[in-house]
Structures are given as structure tokens and as C-alpha cells.
Design the sequence.
């Protein structure tokens, strides 16, 4: 759905909620009802006309714009070019991950050796890349969904594999709320696909809890990372011990 179509759909919904019909609106803005219907149907409306209709319908224009922004479809992944741009600047990658964690500018400044002008420039670059929408007072809205994932085997995933996996698994996983499992199993393909779906559900649950806990004070939350991998795999040292198939001799 395009942005104008979505905006007018939200406006129609809010007009209905306010009990304002096309006929009533036409009378209030001195137009014919057919002209009003045609204007909505053609999705051709200037910003000044939108403001006029909102005022006539008793619907705050800010509410229409905010509802349309909230309903805008969000991407589940960045593009290859966007990920490469993040990796070109480690500070930009840091700011991107902070934004994905819903950190405020103040929290970033308190935690990392970054200046406020640096942070603002990084936020502006993330806005340009399409990861966030930068708002007044250096606030922002994510342009990616709760189901966001890095590109499979993309630049960021490769970076984490090379530089972060060892650091991640070097911990004891013995702290409160921590766990480490490595569970081998022999499964059919349908069973493996079922479990992969369950893992996606787990990721959704993590996103839900993350969203819910945003209402808590910063000192009531800590940074947790869920790193999940599931694939057909055997440790190379064990593979080396496998029996070799007997060679076939020809008569």
C-alpha cells in the first residue's frame, strides 16, 4: 500500500470514528459530495487540503499522520548496500545496534566514549540509510519490524561470526537468566522444519518481552543477547573419525 493510499485510509477511518460522512464533509468545505468522493478515490490531495479536511472533520492532523506512520509496513531486513554502509564505520554499527535495542541518545552518551555531535551525526546517517526515522529532540522511530534479521550470511552476520562469536561463547553462561544448550539429535526434514518454526516463534517472544520491558527504568534492565543456530552439522574432529566407505573393486 502506497503512502498516500495509507494516509487517506487512516483519514477515512478516523472520520468514520468521528461520525463524519462524505456529505457532511462536503458541506463543511463547500464542495459537492461527488467531488469529495472523487478526491478520496483518486488519492490526490495537497497538504493544505488535508489540513482543511482534518479541521472540518474535527480530526487532529497530527493523529492522522502519526497513525499512518505507525501503520506503515516495516522491513524485516536491510539491503546488502545498507549493511555494508554500517560496517564501513564501527561507530555507525554501534549506534545501529543501540537503536535496535531502543537506547536513547542519553543512554548512548552515558555508556560510550562518543560526543553528542557525533551521536547526532550517526543518527542522521541511520535516518539516511532507512534504519530509523529521526524526529525532533534527537528521538527516533525504527523503520524495521520486530521480526528484523540481519541478511543470512550477509556482511553484518559475517562480521559477527569472525569477531563476536568467540567473545560471546567465552562466557560461563552461569549468570542469572543465562543458559547454554548444545543438543544433538537425528531428525527428519519435516521435524527440523517444525523446530525451525518454533525458533522463529521464540524470536518473536523475545521481541515481545523486549517491547514490554521498555516501560521499565534503565537500571531495571540489562543487555541480553539470544544467539541461536540450528543446522545439519558435525564437529570436524568427529567427522575425521568416520569410517570410510569400502572401495569397490572391479572384476
Sequence:
Amino acid at each position: 500500500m502506497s503512502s498516500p493510499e495509507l494516509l487517506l485510509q487512516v483519514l477515512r477511518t478516523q472520520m468514520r470514528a468521528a461520525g463524519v460522512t462524505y456529505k457532511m464533509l462536503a458541506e463543511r468545505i463547500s464542495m459537492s459530495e461527488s467531488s469529495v468522493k472523487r478526491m478520496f478515490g483518486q488519492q490526490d490531495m495537497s497538504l493544505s487540503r488535508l489540513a482543511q479536511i482534518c479541521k472540518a472533520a474535527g480530526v487532529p492532523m497530527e493523529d492522522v499522520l502519526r497513525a499512518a506512520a505507525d501503520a506503515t509496513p516495516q522491513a524485516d531486513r536491510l539491503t546488502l548496500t545498507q549493511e555494508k554502509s554500517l560496517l564501513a564505520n564501527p561507530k555507525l554499527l554501534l549506534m545501529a545496534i543501540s537503536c535496535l535495542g531502543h537506547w536513547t541518545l542519553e543512554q548512548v552518551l552515558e555508556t560510550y566514549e562518543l560526543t553528542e555531535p557525533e551521536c547526532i551525526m550517526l543518527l542522521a546517517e541511520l535516518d539516511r540509510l532507512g534504519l530509523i526515522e529521526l524526529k525532533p529532540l534527537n528521538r527516533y522511530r525504527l523503520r524495521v519490524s520486530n521480526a528484523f534479521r540481519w541478511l543470512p550470511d550477509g556482511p553484518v552476520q559475517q562480521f559477527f561470526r569472525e569477531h563476536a562469536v568467540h567473545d560471546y561463547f567465552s562466557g560461563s553462561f552461569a549468570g542469572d537468566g543465562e543458559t547454554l544448550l548444545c543438543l544433538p539429535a537425528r531428525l527428519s526434514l519435516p521435524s527440523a522444519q517444525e523446530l525451525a518454526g518454533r525458533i522463529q516463534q521464540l524470536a518473536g517472544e523475545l521481541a515481545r518481552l523486549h517491547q514490554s520491558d521498555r516501560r521499565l527504568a534503565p537500571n531495571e534492565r540489562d543487555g541480553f543477547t539470544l544467539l541461536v543456530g540450528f543446522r545439519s552439522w558435525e564437529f570436524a574432529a568427529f567427522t575425521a573419525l568416520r569410517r570410510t566407505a569400502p572401495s569397490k573393486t572391479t572384476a
Observations:
- Strands lie at 132-135, 139-142.
